[in-house]
Amino acid sequence: MAKRENYNELYLFMQVVREGSFTAAAQRLGLAQSGISRSVRELEERLGVQLLVRTTRRLSLTQAGEQLYQATESAFDALDSGLATLAHYRETPSGRVRINASQHAIDKCLLPKLAVFKQRYPDIRLELMNESRFVDIIAERFDAGVRLGPEVGPGMVATRITPDMEMAVVGTPDHLRRYGFPQTPADLAAHPCIAYQFADGSLYHWELIQDEKSIRHRPEGQWALSDSYMEAEAARLGLGLAYVPVELVENDLQRGTLIRVLQRYSLRMDGLFLYYPHRNVSPALRAVIDTLKI
After folding, report:
1. 125-137 tens-digit pLDDT
2. Distance, CA of 251 to CA of 92 (rounded, Å)
3. Following CA atoms 221, 223, 227, 229 in sequence, which dihedral angle do they give, to the nearest 10 degrees?
4. Close Cβ partners of 263 (under 8 Å, ≥ 6 residues apart)
5. Averaged pLDDT score across all residues of the chain
6. Residue 112, C-beta contacts closer than 8 angstroms, at least 6 positions apart
C-alpha cells in the first residue's frame, strides 16, 4: 500500500502560494512563519523536487511546484464543496425513511404528526409499512419501528411518541343485552371475547387491574385477529367483546354503537415508542424523531 501524503503540509504549501509569502500565510493561518517554512521544506525533501524558488523579495513556483499547486488546489476545493454539501443535507434533510408500525400507530400518531413534512421537509420520502408483528428492523432494512412500551432489543434506543394508552372493553348494546353487563373481570368468562393473535400464533391475554393487582383473562370465542382495528370492527359487528385502545372506539362510544364496560379495571399501557439502532442517525431520521417525540 502506497504511503499517504501529509495533507497538512500540502494545505500549508497551497496557502503559501495563494498568499504569496510565508509571512502572509502565517498571518492568515495564525501559525508561526518558521513552522510553515519548515513544513514546506520537509515536503520538498520528501517529494525530492523543489517546489518554490525563494528570493528576498518574492516567491515563485517551479514547474513541479505549479503542477502540485494546481492538483492541490483542485483537490481541496472539491473537499470544501463536499463538506458544503454535507452541511446542506444537515440543514435540509433529504432521503428515504422506512418505518415499520401497526395501522393504529400510523393512523393515530405517525400520519397526523408527520403531515408537516409536506411543507417542512419536501425532500424526505416517508415509507410507513403496516405490520402488527415485531420485526428485526435492521435485517428487514427499516430505519425505525414503533411498538408499545420502551423495552427494545440490545443496541436499540427508544423515544416516546405518545402518552400512556388507555384500554377499553367494549361491546354492542345487543351483545350486552344478550350476555349481560360484566361487573368484574371474572364475569368475562360468560362472554365470547375477540382475541388478538400474535404472529407466532399465541394470544394476547387481556391485562386488567383488580384490587391494585394485575390479572389476566384469556379471551374465549370464535374470532382471533391480528390488528386492533379489526378487533374494533368485529366488536361493532356484534361478534363479541373487544379489548382495544379507547381512542379507536371514541366515536362509537359517543354515538352509543358500542358501550364500554369494566372501565375501573381497564389498563393504562405504556404509549407508543419509536425505536431505532443506537448509532448516528441520518438527518432525515433525526427530523422524524424530533417531530414525533413528546
Report:
1. 999 998 766 678 8
2. 39
3. -90
4. 168, 169
5. 89
6. none
Residue linked to cell 393512523: 107
Query: Quick one: cell of 283?
Result: 438527518
Q: For position 3, what pLDDT does the model report? A: 46
Cell match 400518531: residue?
109
In three-state secondary structure terms, 268 is: strand
The 3-state DSSP class for residue 213 equals: strand
Cell of 84: 458544503
Cα–Cα–Cα angle for 279, 283, 285, rounded to 5 degrees: 70
Amino acid at residue number 274: L
Would you state the cell numbers that stand for residue 103, as one nine-digit string? 395501522
pLDDT in tens, 5-16: 578 889 999 999
Over the stretch 185-211, which tens digit does the pLDDT of each residue have? 999 999 999 999 987 889 999 999 999
Q: Please report how many Cα atoms fall inside a 13 Å half-sphere around the Cα of residue 36, on the Cβ side.
A: 21
Cross-strand pairs, 216: 207
DSSP assignment string, 20-76: SSHHHHHHHHT--HHHHHHHHHHHHHHHTS--EEE-SS-EEE-HHHHHHHHHHHHHH
Task: Output the CA torsion sign for 185, 189, 191, 196.
Answer: positive
